[in-house]
Specification:
Elements (H helix, E strand, L loop, with lengths): L4 E7 L4 H14 L6 E5 L2 E8 L2 E8 L4 E6 L3 H8 L4 E4 L11 H7 L17 E4 L8 E8 L4 E8 L2 E8 L3 E3 L2
Antiparallel strand pairs: 1-5, 1-6, 2-5, 3-4, 7-8, 7-11, 8-9, 9-10
Protein backbone atom coordinates (compact mmCIF):
# COMPACT_ATOMS: atom_id res chain seq x y z
CA UNK A 1 0.00 0.00 0.00
CA UNK A 2 1.20 3.52 -0.80
CA UNK A 3 2.33 5.93 1.88
CA UNK A 4 0.06 8.74 3.11
CA UNK A 5 1.04 12.28 2.15
CA UNK A 6 -0.32 15.80 2.63
CA UNK A 7 -2.33 17.19 -0.27
CA UNK A 8 -3.85 20.65 -0.67
CA UNK A 9 -7.46 20.95 -1.80
CA UNK A 10 -8.80 24.21 -3.23
CA UNK A 11 -12.30 25.19 -2.08
CA UNK A 12 -14.79 27.93 -2.66
CA UNK A 13 -13.99 30.88 -0.43
CA UNK A 14 -15.76 30.57 2.91
CA UNK A 15 -16.49 26.84 2.47
CA UNK A 16 -13.29 25.53 4.08
CA UNK A 17 -14.93 24.29 7.30
CA UNK A 18 -17.93 22.89 5.38
CA UNK A 19 -15.57 20.93 3.12
CA UNK A 20 -13.65 19.64 6.14
CA UNK A 21 -16.87 18.48 7.82
CA UNK A 22 -18.14 16.84 4.61
CA UNK A 23 -14.87 14.97 4.08
CA UNK A 24 -14.87 13.77 7.71
CA UNK A 25 -18.46 12.49 7.35
CA UNK A 26 -17.57 10.74 4.10
CA UNK A 27 -14.57 9.08 5.76
CA UNK A 28 -16.85 7.60 8.43
CA UNK A 29 -19.70 6.67 6.04
CA UNK A 30 -17.45 4.94 3.50
CA UNK A 31 -15.05 3.52 6.11
CA UNK A 32 -12.02 5.29 4.63
CA UNK A 33 -10.21 5.84 7.95
CA UNK A 34 -7.27 3.75 6.68
CA UNK A 35 -6.64 5.89 3.61
CA UNK A 36 -7.81 9.41 4.54
CA UNK A 37 -6.13 9.98 7.87
CA UNK A 38 -6.45 13.70 8.65
CA UNK A 39 -8.25 16.80 7.36
CA UNK A 40 -7.19 20.28 8.51
CA UNK A 41 -8.08 23.90 8.04
CA UNK A 42 -5.06 25.63 9.64
CA UNK A 43 -6.17 28.42 11.97
CA UNK A 44 -4.13 31.04 13.79
CA UNK A 45 -4.95 33.05 16.90
CA UNK A 46 -4.75 36.78 16.24
CA UNK A 47 -5.17 39.73 18.53
CA UNK A 48 -7.57 42.47 17.42
CA UNK A 49 -9.02 45.61 18.93
CA UNK A 50 -12.80 45.61 19.27
CA UNK A 51 -14.57 48.44 21.11
CA UNK A 52 -11.23 49.44 22.65
CA UNK A 53 -10.58 45.95 24.06
CA UNK A 54 -8.12 43.29 22.94
CA UNK A 55 -9.94 40.25 21.55
CA UNK A 56 -8.40 36.95 20.43
CA UNK A 57 -9.89 35.70 17.16
CA UNK A 58 -9.16 32.64 15.06
CA UNK A 59 -8.25 33.39 11.46
CA UNK A 60 -7.59 31.01 8.61
CA UNK A 61 -3.95 30.80 7.68
CA UNK A 62 -4.79 29.80 4.08
CA UNK A 63 -8.27 30.96 3.04
CA UNK A 64 -9.69 28.82 0.26
CA UNK A 65 -7.60 25.73 1.07
CA UNK A 66 -8.02 22.52 3.06
CA UNK A 67 -5.12 20.17 3.84
CA UNK A 68 -5.72 16.41 3.61
CA UNK A 69 -3.34 13.67 4.82
CA UNK A 70 -4.18 10.63 2.74
CA UNK A 71 -3.08 7.74 0.59
CA UNK A 72 -3.66 8.86 -2.99
CA UNK A 73 -5.53 6.38 -5.18
CA UNK A 74 -8.43 6.60 -7.63
CA UNK A 75 -11.04 6.14 -4.89
CA UNK A 76 -9.66 8.78 -2.48
CA UNK A 77 -9.08 11.22 -5.35
CA UNK A 78 -12.70 10.76 -6.44
CA UNK A 79 -14.09 11.15 -2.90
CA UNK A 80 -12.19 14.38 -2.22
CA UNK A 81 -12.63 15.85 -5.69
CA UNK A 82 -16.40 15.29 -5.65
CA UNK A 83 -17.01 16.77 -2.21
CA UNK A 84 -19.38 19.74 -2.36
CA UNK A 85 -17.38 22.99 -2.24
CA UNK A 86 -14.13 21.49 -3.60
CA UNK A 87 -12.86 22.99 -6.85
CA UNK A 88 -9.88 20.65 -7.16
CA UNK A 89 -6.49 19.61 -5.90
CA UNK A 90 -3.53 21.95 -6.03
CA UNK A 91 -1.33 20.78 -8.88
CA UNK A 92 -1.15 20.91 -12.66
CA UNK A 93 -4.47 20.07 -14.30
CA UNK A 94 -6.35 17.48 -12.29
CA UNK A 95 -3.15 15.85 -10.98
CA UNK A 96 -2.76 16.18 -7.22
CA UNK A 97 0.78 17.01 -6.11
CA UNK A 98 1.74 16.14 -2.51
CA UNK A 99 3.49 18.66 -0.29
CA UNK A 100 7.20 18.11 0.22
CA UNK A 101 8.69 17.66 3.69
CA UNK A 102 10.19 21.16 3.43
CA UNK A 103 6.81 22.69 2.60
CA UNK A 104 5.16 20.87 5.48
CA UNK A 105 7.85 22.10 7.88
CA UNK A 106 7.47 25.67 6.60
CA UNK A 107 3.69 25.58 6.92
CA UNK A 108 3.89 24.16 10.45
CA UNK A 109 0.94 21.89 9.58
CA UNK A 110 1.98 19.13 11.92
CA UNK A 111 2.30 21.42 14.94
CA UNK A 112 -0.49 22.80 17.04
CA UNK A 113 -2.12 25.42 14.81
CA UNK A 114 -2.39 28.02 17.55
CA UNK A 115 0.33 30.49 16.73
CA UNK A 116 2.07 32.99 18.94
CA UNK A 117 -0.29 35.87 19.66
CA UNK A 118 1.17 39.18 18.52
CA UNK A 119 1.76 41.79 21.16
CA UNK A 120 0.58 44.67 19.01
CA UNK A 121 -2.67 45.65 17.34
CA UNK A 122 -3.33 48.24 14.64
CA UNK A 123 -4.53 51.53 16.13
CA UNK A 124 -2.60 51.22 19.40
CA UNK A 125 -0.39 54.09 20.57
CA UNK A 126 3.25 53.09 21.12
CA UNK A 127 6.50 54.66 22.26
CA UNK A 128 9.66 53.87 20.32
CA UNK A 129 12.46 52.83 22.67
CA UNK A 130 15.57 52.82 20.48
CA UNK A 131 17.09 54.00 17.24
CA UNK A 132 16.71 57.38 15.57
CA UNK A 133 13.16 57.84 16.87
CA UNK A 134 13.79 57.05 20.56
CA UNK A 135 11.00 58.39 22.84
CA UNK A 136 8.80 59.24 19.85
CA UNK A 137 5.09 58.44 20.11
CA UNK A 138 3.08 57.04 17.21
CA UNK A 139 0.14 54.89 16.16
CA UNK A 140 0.52 51.34 14.81
CA UNK A 141 -0.73 51.18 11.23
CA UNK A 142 0.40 47.63 10.36
CA UNK A 143 1.78 44.55 12.13
CA UNK A 144 4.07 42.10 10.31
CA UNK A 145 4.36 39.00 12.51
CA UNK A 146 6.65 37.11 10.14
CA UNK A 147 9.24 39.92 10.15
CA UNK A 148 8.36 40.84 13.78
CA UNK A 149 7.96 44.51 12.86
CA UNK A 150 5.29 47.18 13.19
CA UNK A 151 4.69 50.17 10.96
CA UNK A 152 4.25 53.22 13.18
CA UNK A 153 2.80 56.51 11.96
CA UNK A 154 4.38 59.53 13.64
CA UNK A 155 4.01 63.24 13.04
CA UNK A 156 7.29 64.81 11.95
CA UNK A 157 7.56 68.41 10.78
CA UNK A 158 3.76 68.61 10.59
CA UNK A 159 3.43 65.55 8.35
CA UNK A 160 2.47 61.96 8.98
CA UNK A 161 5.50 59.71 8.51
CA UNK A 162 5.46 55.91 8.47
CA UNK A 163 8.38 54.14 10.21
CA UNK A 164 9.02 50.39 10.41
CA UNK A 165 10.28 49.30 13.84
CA UNK A 166 11.02 45.90 15.38
CA UNK A 167 8.76 44.42 18.08
CA UNK A 168 11.55 44.78 20.65
CA UNK A 169 11.96 48.50 19.94
CA UNK A 170 8.44 49.64 20.89
CA UNK A 171 6.23 49.53 23.97
CA UNK A 172 2.50 50.18 24.25
CA UNK A 173 1.69 53.63 25.61
CA UNK A 174 -0.54 53.40 28.65
Amino acid sequence: MAEAQWFVVHTYSGYENNVKTSIEKTIVNRKLQDVILDVRVPMQDTLEMKNGERVIKKKMMFPGYVFVYMVMNDNTWYVIRNTRGVTGFVGPGSKAVPLSETEIANLRLLEDTTAEIPEFVEGENVIIQSGNWVNSVGVIKAVNNSKRTVSVEMTMFGRATLVEVGFDDVIIQK
